[in-house]
Amino acid sequence: MRFSAVGVSSTLLFASAVTAFRDSSPLLVWSSEPNYGLDEARAELTSGVIGADVMFESLETIGCDWDMVVVAHMDDLHQAQIKKISLPLDSSKADLHVPYLIRPTREGLDTSVQSWAEKCGAKLVDDLANAEKGQRTLVYLNVEHGKDVVLPSDLPARHLVVLTGTRDLSKNDAKRQGVVEEPFESVKVPEVVSSLPSVAPESEASTAAKNKTDPDAPRHNTYLTTPLITALLITFLIFVPVIAISVSALASVQVPPRMLEISKALAVDKTRKDQ
Question: CA-CA distance, 180 to 238, in Å (whole number)?
Fold first, then answer.
C-alpha cells in the first residue's frame, strides 16, 4: 500500500509538472542597440521558468530608449515550436530569452503592452502600416499560430522586437478536468484488510477453560504482583544500603588511648576500695 501511494503521488507530481510546461510560452527580446534594462533583466534571471504575470509586468522596465517596439504575439506558442517557424532574427542571438512563461494570458499581455506604451508616450498600433515615421510607436501584432513572423527591413535604427505567446487557460483547464482527473478518480485502491481472514479475540472464559483442560498450557506466575515488586525494590535499594552504611560507620568508631587509660585507672581504684 505504501509503495502504491508513493507511485500515485509521483505520477500526480509528474502530471502536474507536464501540465505546467504545457501551459507555457516563450519570451524572446531582441534589441538593435545595447539596452541597460535588458542587461539587468538577463542578470536577474536565475531560471528559464518564471511566472508570466511577473514577466509581462516587467516589460516596461526595459525603458523607453527606442523609436519603435514590435510586440509579435502568437496564440498557443510553445518553446518547442520556435525552431519550426521562421523568425525575423536568430533566436540564439536574443538579448533576453525566457523559454517557459508559466500560464501566460492574453489579458495580462494586453495590459502590460498598453502600460508600456503609455509610460513611454508611444503610439499604440496593431499594424506596421499604421506606424508613423518620426513618432515613437509600439506595434502590437497578432501572428497566426504556426505562421512565420515577418518584419520589414526598414525598421528604425533604435528598435526592439518582442516575440511571445499566450494560452487560453479556461480551455486547457476544461480539458485537464475531463481527461486527466477522470482516470485518477476511477482508480480504486485495493482493500487489503478485507482480504485477510478475520480473527475474533479470545474471551477470558475461553482462555481459562483452555488452561484448565490443557495440561501443557503455560502456568502464569501470579505471586510477583506490583506491590510485592515495589516492596522488594525499596528494601534492596534503600533499606539494605542504609543499614550497611550504618554498621560500617559504627564499626569504624575507635576509643582514644587516653580514655582507655582513665578507664583502667578507675577500675583499679574501685578494686582497691572493694578490698
Answer: 72
